[in-house]
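User: Hi! I'm working on a homework problem where we have to compare a predicted structure to a textbook description. Could you give me the structure for the chain below?
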Amino acid sequence: MAASREHPDLVRRHGHVVILVEDDAGLRTALERMLRTAGFEAQAYADAESVLADHSVDWADCMVIDVGLPALSGFDLLQRLRDRGVTAPAVVISAQDEQRLRLEAERRGVMHFLAKPFLGSALLRLLDGVIGNGPAAGGIRPS
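Assistant: Happy to help. Predicted structure tokens:
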């Protein structure tokens, strides 16, 4: 893709793989579209088991994981991926904006927590910072 003045961010994001794990089909589809439109290569999954079965996720640049997945929680998924050697940074999203979840995220080494509903631009800013295309947001912060 050639660089252009109209879409400099799209050029920088092209080729970066973001794993998205969200059990809500409507939200998953919307976030996947937004990520692709923004220039990321998004791989979307409805549950933790699907992610664990796909070893192509091992080379992702970043992961966006919902905490409240059906069988295996987002935190447990992240731990299993870490045990497998996946080192991609993670952004945790949750419909429950509770201090205990933020503390659990921090304890597990997650640097970014977004409470639903959130603006798509907030997620894109975090991803740019995490992947290195923009200023890092740094630490667990409310959004």
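For your comparison, note the following. The CA atoms of residues 6 and 21 lie 30 Å apart. Helices lie at 8-13, 25-37, 48-53, 74-83, 99-107, 120-131. Good luck with the assignment!
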